[in-house]
Specification:
This protein has helices at residues 3-11, 26-40, 46-49, 60-68, 93-104, 126-129, 147-159, 166-176, 180-194, 202-208, 214-225, 229-241, 246-264, 273-286, 288-308, 313-325; strands spanning 18-22, 50-54, 77-82, 112-118, 136-139, 163-164, 199-200. The protein is α/β, with parallel strands linked by helices. The strands form two sheets. Strands 2-3-4-1-5 form a five-stranded parallel sheet, sandwiched between helices. A two-stranded parallel ribbon has the order 6-7. Helix 5 links the parallel strand 3 and strand 4 (112-118).
C-alpha cells in the first residue's frame, strides 16, 4: 500500500491495528505517519494517548508497556516506534520479537495502534512478515524519475492549489531530480510566484526554479574525475556562492553520475551530440567500478542531508567531493 491509498483508507474510516511505514523517502514516511496520527488521535487528549519510542533510547519492554496502556477518553492510543538512523541500536532481533509478539497477542489493535517507521528492513524477517492483513505495510520509496516522478509533482501541485502543466512538471523534475523535499520547496516557491490557483507552465519553472548549470556540473565532474580535489572544492564553493542549494547540487550530481553509468553500460541517453560525447569521455575516464562507488557515496550523502547525519549541508557536500576526487 502506498501513502495515497493509506490516506484514502483512513478517510473511509478504517484504522488497522498496526502499520509498517518503510522506505527511503523521509517525506513520504512523515506523510504516512501524520495521516495515521491525525486519524487515531482525533479524539481524546493527545498527551495521554500517544507514545513515541526510538530504538536507540527505548527498550522492547517499554514497547510492551506502551501498547498495554489503556487509552484515556478515546477508543485507541497510538504507539510509534522509529528506527534511529545513523547511530545507536536499530530494529534488531530483540525488537523483532517484541513487535511480532505485539501483533500476535490477544486483542492486538483493540486499544492501541502500532506504527513502526524504518528506512529499510530485511523482508525475510518474521516480524516484517507479521505485518499482514489486518495490519499493513506502507511503501515510502521515492518515485522513479520520469512519469512516476511527474505524477507525484502533479498530485502535490494540486494539493496546494497549483495548475502544473505536463511540460512544466517535466522541466521541474529535470532540474531538481527525485528529491521530494526539494521538489516540494520549489512548488511552494512557484505558488508564491503565480499565486493560489495559478497556472504554472514551462516558462514559469524556467524563471522561478533554481537550476544547477550544466557547465558547472561538467567543470565539477571533470575535476573530480581527474583527481583534482582542490579544484573540485573550488568549483563547489563557486556554485555555493552563486546561491545553489546543497540539495539541488546533490540531485544534479546524482543525475549526472546515473547517466554516466548508463552510458558506460552501452545505453543511449537523450542528449545533444556534444553532450553525448562528453558523457562517453567521462564514463570511460571513471570506469564502471568507480562510477558505482561514486553513486554509493552520493546516496550516503543524500541520507545525511535528509536528517540522518550531523553535518551542515555545505560540509556534507564538501566531504562528498573529497571522497569522489580521491
Amino acid at each position: 500500500m502506498n501513502v495515497e491509498k493509506l490516506v484514502a483508507e483512513l478517510a473511509s474510516g478504517r484504522i488497522r491495528p498496526a502499520y509498517l511505514v518503510v522506505g527511503a523517502e523521509a517525506l513520504l514516511r512523515d506523510a504516512a505517519l501524520e495521516a495515521v496520527e491525525s486519524c487515531v488521535l482525533a479524539e481524546g487528549p493527545r498527551d495521554f494517548n500517544f507514545d513515541r519510542l526510538d530504538t536507540d533510547s527505548a527498550s522492547p519492554a517499554r514497547l510492551e508497556e506502551a501498547l498495554g496502556t489503556l487509552p484515556l477518553m478515546a477508543a485507541r492510543r497510538l504507539v510509534v516506534l522509529r528506527e534511529t538512523e545513523g547511530r545507536g541500536a536499530g530494529l534488531d532481533e530483540s525488537w523483532g520479537r517484541a513487535i511480532e509478539q505485539a501483533l500476535a497477542g490477544p486483542g492486538a489493535g483493540e486499544t492501541s495502534v502500532l506504527v513502526v517507521v524504518a528506512r529499510k528492513v530485511d523482508r525475510r524477517g518474521r516480524w516484517v512478515k507479521a505485518f499482514r492483513d489486518p495490519a499493513a505495510e506502507i511503501e515510502c520509496d521515492p518515485p522513479k524519475a520520469g512519469r512516476e516522478l511527474e505524477a507525484f509533482l502533479d498530485r502535490d501541485a494540486r494539493r496546494i492549489g497549483l495548475d502544473l502543466t505536463a511540460d512544466a512538471a517535466e522541466l521541474l523534475a529535470e532540474r531538481t531530480g527525485p528529491n521530494l523535499l526539494l521538489l516540494r520547496q520549489e512548488l511552494e516557491k512557484l505558488l508564491l510566484h503565480v499565486g493560489p490557483g495559478g497556472r504554472v507552465d514551462r516558462a514559469a519553472v524556467a524563471l522561478a526554479v533554481s537550476n544547477v548549470a550544466e557547465e558547472s556540473i561538467w567543470d565539477l565532474t571533470d575535476a573530480i574525475g581527474q583527481g583534482r580535489a582542490a579544484d573540485s572544492l573550488a568549483q563547489l564553493a563557486q556554485m555555493f556562492g552563486q546561491g545553489e542549494a546543497a540539495q539541488a547540487m546533490l540531485a544534479a550530481l546524482a543525475s549526472h553520475f546515473r547517466r554516466l553509468v548508463r552510458v558506460g553500460q552501452g545505453e543511449r541517453v537523450p542528449a545533444p551530440p556534444f553532450v553525448a560525447r562528453k558523457l562517453e569521455q567521462q564514463a570511460r575516464r571513471f570506469g564502471p567500478a568507480r562510477l558505482l562507488a561514486c553513486l554509493r557515496a552520493i546516496h550516503r550523502t543524500d541520507v545525511e542531508l535528509k536528517g540522518a547525519g550531523v553535518l551542515r549541508p555545505e560540509r556534507a557536500l564538501e566531504q562528498l567531493v573529497i571522497q569522489l576526487s580521491s
